[in-house]
Amino acid sequence: MKPIIEAKSLVKRFGAVTAANDVNVDIMSGTISGLIGTNGAGKTTFINMITGYLGPDSGSILLEGQEIVGLSPRQITRRGVARSFQIPQLFNSLTAIENLMFAYSATGSVGAKGFSILSDDELAIHADETLEVFGLGAFRNSIAGTMPEGIRKLLDIAIAMVGKPKVLFLDEPTSGVASEEKFSVMDRIIDATRVAGVSVLFVEHDMEIVRRYSDRVLAFFEGRVLIDGPPETVLSDRQVRELIIGEEHRVPKEDNHA
Ligand SMILES: Nc1ncnc2c1ncn2[C@@H]1O[C@H](COP(=O)(O)OP(=O)(O)OP(=O)(O)O)[C@@H](O)[C@H]1O
């Protein structure tokens, strides 16, 4: 399996705070990685550096072997890196299909004057296909601002997929989603991205979600990668439990039947 992203020796300081302190991470092609860490551990800074929103002070980021440090977010998006934010970035007064049609018109083929060369009918065909992939057909004509949060998250991620990315970064895909909906929302996201062969890295504080959907988990603490490995290894690691999950590591007391 080849790495799609290779982040090497990334350092980022904000004044006295070191938000990335020699971060080395490979993201393997076609895998789902969960990124965990306490508040301020450097998760968003890491994603911001890979997506071009922040430049590292030093270090290198390779996308399929090509350096992307110094490129703008737009250039990095064009090379196949997409992201969704914790708060969905939707046009709240437009319907689900209109939001997707707009995304297709902005991302798809454009003519000499920079406008979409697809007709409204063609845009609607693409948008309807994407709604189906994400199980959003029933919300086709719903106004985005009135939809439940789980549906808004799905629509936002569906829009991030419009440009056919190779890697997708998701910031807390289940935050704000009702607990009874969180698994169905994640099932949809993971099914859609696996079918498309997209590598995913998602930031998540819900350890049930992390355990269930990650092929591999990265644990950040104070700007460093504390541990990186399979979910069962990382989530049962003593330091991860103490420092990140917030449970004290208790050695079970021996039963004394005497
Ligand atoms: N633009 C900035 N200016 C100054 N300090 C910043 C900036 N961005 C991040 N930081 C600091 O860098 C550290 C890492 O922040 P970051 O947002 O990457 O953490 P995080 O793991 O994403 O946290 P959270 O889970 O709360 O989103 C924090 O101490 C934060 O205050």
UniProtKB/TrEMBL annotation:
UniProtKB keywords: ATP-binding, Nucleotide-binding, Transport
Domain ABC transporter: 5-247
A Gene Ontology biological process term: L-valine import across plasma membrane
Pfam families in the cross-refs: ABC_tran
One GO MF term attached to the UniProt entry: L-valine transmembrane transporter activity
This protein's record includes keyword Transport: yes
PANTHER family, sorted: AMINO ACID ABC TRANSPORTER ATP-BINDING PROTEIN (PTHR45772:SF7), CONSERVED COMPONENT OF ABC TRANSPORTER FOR NATURAL AMINO ACIDS-RELATED (PTHR45772)
Name by which UniProt lists this protein: Amino acid/amide ABC transporter ATP-binding protein 1 (HAAT family)
Organism of this sequence: Rhizobium laguerreae
